[in-house]
């Protein structure tokens, strides 16, 4: 029986080396290995730091592998702190191969690769542990994704070389009737409000959003993107300023797997001036020195994004980020000591709104209907949780039907056929009435106009010598065919009654016969005749 109620996954510990992020506990493999990971809206896979990710750390602060593993969200394995994902120690691991990670295009200079396979993944919810077998798992060593993640996108993992397709975690849950639909509602949490994140699978929390927000429908390639109309900053070192540039009209992807806001370089240049930032070319981060940090904390600037579903929509929403959401610290291995920075990055092509942005937004995605809603997150202290399920689309199949063109063609053909049959019957009945009214001796012999070799022999019966039973039978068949008449003042066909019998006056018989001989054998059917 299908589960009609969504699953609510509560976040656990805070972690991260480029901010303090709310993470969710999961376990992977058999026996289980524990991790604290982030939700990823851009893929449907599980990413975990491998043992090798900490073995060659360049940071002095992370020389102890155990400290490095804990920093990367790695938990215990068989009662001891683990350094990373040990795939060879899992009896449920099935190796696939090394593939590039599905990362937003042009965010990083180097290709991001992972060691892929399938393994068991367990999610913790209010009712206990939900274990899913044969999930796509990638072991990573890159430092661009410091923490592990579990994907909540609908995109399946497609390994072309091995000809293997692994359904996403949400697809598998929906297939097993563990959730009402392949959908979610995400609040990434906010450490400055001391509010952990919350993830609803198969529904959303109506109390987590403020206002209606904007809804994007029929988005392509399973990519969540909005259009930024404007970025306005208040209370900056230069007062209230507006960031304007043509590139702002381009789509900006929403991706919780990355931390910062990736914006066009010219936009970053403006923000650098407005906020007194310093660009570090070695780390590609915007540093906030002590002097600038003190001023910004006192001024408490706000960064307001005006967003639309597309480039032409008149419906917009505003997501306002306080400085507390943007006042982040970067630590090892990026810097040996905690360093204040502003979470923007220079994007060479596409722009991305990451977790720093999502701290003040609530995201609801219905993958099966290809729509999502983005709205301002409500203040955590004033929330009342209201979980709303998202049902799966109806799969009722409609019966095959003819196209409109085919239906019109059939209708026209039927009308033409009825008109032809009605005209033939009318002509035959009218001729027979005339014969009956005039009598057999008064009817001209049609054979008189035939060629000599086609005339009837004297002993052959003429047209009026047919047996009465046959004539009545023919009449009966003719009268059983429905007749339709098209009136000039109407556009529909109406059923006629039986023809009224009438007798011609004697003085009109001769003139009527003469006119009949001059008639065309098949006259067109006329309205009102």
Task: Assign the CATH topology of the largest domain.
Answer: Cathepsin D, subunit A, domain 1
CATH class type of the largest domain: Mainly Beta
Q: Please tell me the CATH architecture of the largest domain by its name.
A: Beta Barrel
Structural class: alpha+beta
**Radius of gyration, Cα only, in angstroms?**
41 Å
Could you list some keywords that capture this structure?
33% strand; 2 domains; alpha+beta; 529 residues; 6-stranded antiparallel β-sheet; 10 helices
Q: Can you summarize this structure?
A:
This protein is of the alpha+beta class and 529 residues long. 20% of the residues lie in helices and 33% in strands.
Structure write-up:
With 529 residues, the protein is α+β, with helices and mostly antiparallel strands. Helix content is 20%, strand content 33%. It has ten helices and 35 strands. Strands 19, 20, 21, 22, 25, 26, 29 and 30 form an eight-stranded mixed beta sheet that branches. A hairpin with a 7-residue loop joins strand 25 and strand 26. 35% of the residues are buried.
How does the SSE layout of this entry go?
Elements (H helix, E strand, L loop, with lengths): L6 E4 L3 E2 L5 E2 L1 E5 L4 E8 L5 E4 L2 H4 L9 H7 L2 E4 L2 E2 L12 E7 L12 E13 L2 E13 L8 E3 L5 E3 L4 E3 L2 H7 L7 E5 L10 E4 L1 E3 L3 E9 L7 E12 L2 E5 L7 E4 L6 E4 H11 L2 E3 L4 E3 L2 H10 L2 E7 L7 E7 H4 L1 E3 L8 E4 L1 E4 L3 E3 L1 H4 L2 E6 L4 E7 L9 E3 L14 H35 L29 H12 L4 E3 L6 E3 L10 H13 L11
Parallel strand pairs: 5-12, 6-11, 21-30, 22-29
Antiparallel strand pairs: 1-16, 2-3, 4-5, 4-10, 5-7, 6-12, 7-8, 9-10, 10-11, 13-14, 15-16, 15-31, 17-33, 18-32, 19-20, 19-21, 19-25, 22-30, 23-24, 24-28, 25-26, 27-28, 31-32, 34-35
